[in-house]
C-alpha cells in the first residue's frame, strides 16, 4: 500500500510540476507576443470604379465605441496602412471630390480581410436627351455617342436604349461630354457639348439636308483674339468634310461671328481670319473651294443680347447654311 501511495504521490507531483511549467510558458509567451496578437495590420487601396485606377481619397478610421479617430490620411496613390485592435468595431469612411462617399464597418471580433481594394463611384446626374426633327417635331430613333472630354470614357446610346429618340443617361458631375448624333445622310450632322452641371435636359433638333437650312456649329471654337484651330474644331470640320463627301452636289456657307467686344473693324477682321482658317482646312482635306464659302461677319449678326456673358458666348459662333444641293 505504501508503495502504491508513493507512486501516486509521485505522479501527482509530476503533473503539478508540468502544469506550473505550462503556466510559466504561457505567461512568457504572453509577455512576448500578446500585443501583436491583439493587433491587426490593415492595407487599404482606393480605386476609381470607372477607370480602375488609384484614386486620391481621404481615408478616416473611427473607433465606434470610443468615438475617436484612430487614423486619417489622404495618400496620393490611394493606399494606406494602419494598425487596429482586435475585438473592436471601427467605421472606415472614404471620400473624394466628385465621388460618392463610402462607409464600411470593420468588426474585428470577426474575420475581416486585412487587404482591401475599395472602389468609389463617381457622382453622376441624369440628363435627358430628346432627338427630334426640326420641322415636324417627330422623335428620331438615332443613336447617340457621348465622349468625356475630361477622362477616357465613351458612352454609346443605341436606338433600342431609348424611346423614339428619347434617352436618359447618367453623366459624371462637372465633366463635359461631346455629344454626337449618328444620323443618316438625309439629315445634317449634330454635335454639341453637354454637362450635367449645366443642363438636365437637351433638345436635339435635326435639320434635313435642304436649301436654306441653317445649323449652328457648336464645336468650332477659338481662344480669345486667336484664329488657330484646336482639336474640337478639327473634329467638327471633319464632320463638314464627311457631309460634303456624302452629298457631292451640296454647296454650303460657313459663317464666323463674334460678340461686340472691340470695334466693328477689329471684330470683322478677326472673324474673317477665322473663316480663312476654316477655308484652308477644308481645302487641305480635298474639298473643292467652289463647293463652299467661309465668310466672316464680325458682330453684325448677333443671335442673343451682348449684355450678358451667356449672350456674348452665344454670339461667338460659327454656323452652316446650305446654299444649294
Describe the protein's architecture and organization:
The structure is a single chain. The chain has 325 residues and is an alpha+beta fold. The protein has three domains: 37-120, Sandwich (Immunoglobulin-like), CATH 2.60.40.2190; 123-208, Carboxypeptidase-like, regulatory domain (Immunoglobulin-like), CATH 2.60.40; 209-325, 60s Ribosomal Protein L30, Chain: A (2-Layer Sandwich). The chain is built from four helices and 18 strands. It has helices spanning 2-37, 231-246, 264-284, 309-315; strands at residues 39-48, 58-63, 68-73, 79-85, 89-95, 102-107, 115-120, 124-133, 143-148, 154-157, 166-172, 177-182, 191-194, 201-206, 214-217, 251-257, 292-298, 317-324. It has a four-stranded antiparallel sheet, with no helix packed on it. A four-stranded antiparallel sheet has the order 10-9-12-13, with no helix packed on it. Strand 9 (143-148) and strand 10 (154-157) form a beta hairpin. The longest helix has 36 residues, at 2-37. The chain is elongated, with a radius of gyration of 35 Å. The N and C termini lie far apart (128 Å). Residues 1-33 have low confidence and may be disordered.
Question: TL;DR?
Answer:
With 325 residues, this protein is an alpha+beta fold.
Amino acid at each position: 500500500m505504501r508503495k502504491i501511495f508513493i507512486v501516486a504521490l509521485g505522479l501527482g507531483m509530476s503533473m503539478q510540476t508540468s502544469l506550473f511549467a505550462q503556466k510559466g510558458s504561457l505567461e512568457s509567451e504572453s509577455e512576448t507576443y500578446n500585443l501583436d496578437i491583439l493587433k491587426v495590420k490593415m492595407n487599404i487601396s482606393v480605386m476609381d470604379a470607372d477607370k480602375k485606377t488609384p484614386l486620391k481619397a481621404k481615408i478616416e478610421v473611427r473607433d465606434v465605441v470610443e468615438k475617436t479617430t484612430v487614423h486619417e490620411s489622404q495618400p496620393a496613390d490611394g493606399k494606406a496602412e494602419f494598425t487596429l485592435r482586435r475585438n473592436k468595431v471601427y467605421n472606415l469612411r472614404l471620400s473624394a471630390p466628385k465621388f460618392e462617399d463610402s462607409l464600411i464597418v470593420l468588426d474585428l471580433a470577426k474575420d475581416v480581410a486585412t487587404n482591401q481594394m475599395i472602389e468609389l463611384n463617381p457622382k453622376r446626374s441624369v440628363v435627358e436627351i430628346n432627338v427630334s426633327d426640326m420641322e415636324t417635331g417627330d422623335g428620331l430613333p438615332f443613336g447617340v455617342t457621348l465622349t468625356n472630354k475630361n477622362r477616357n470614357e465613351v458612352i454609346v446610346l443605341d436606338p433600342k436604349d431609348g424611346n423614339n429618340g428619347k434617352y436618359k443617361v447618367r453623366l459624371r458631375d462637372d465633366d463635359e461630354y461631346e455629344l454626337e448624333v449618328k444620323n443618316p445622310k438625309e439629315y445634317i450632322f449634330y454635335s454639341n457639348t453637354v454637362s450635367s452641371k449645366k443642363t438636365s435636359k437637351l433638345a436635339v433638333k435635326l435639320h434635313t439636308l435642304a436649301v436654306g437650312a441653317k445649323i449652328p456649329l457648336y464645336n468650332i471654337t477659338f481662344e480669345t483674339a486667336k484664329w488657330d484651330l484646336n482639336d474640337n474644331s478639327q473634329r467638327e470640320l471633319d464632320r463638314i468634310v464627311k457631309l460634303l463627301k456624302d452629298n457631292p452636289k451640296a454647296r454650303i456657307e460657313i459663317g464666323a461671328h463674334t460678340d461686340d467686344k472691340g470695334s466693328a473693324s477689329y471684330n470683322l477682321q478677326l472673324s474673317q481670319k477665322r473663316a480663312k482658317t476654316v477655308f484652308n482646312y477644308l481645302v487641305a482635306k480635298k474639298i473643292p473651294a467652289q463647293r463652299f464659302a467661309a465668310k466672316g461677319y464680325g458682330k453684325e449678326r448677333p443671335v442673343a443680347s451682348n449684355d450678358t456673358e451667356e449672350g456674348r458666348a452665344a454670339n461667338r459662333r460659327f454656323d452652316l447654311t446650305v446654299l444649294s444641293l
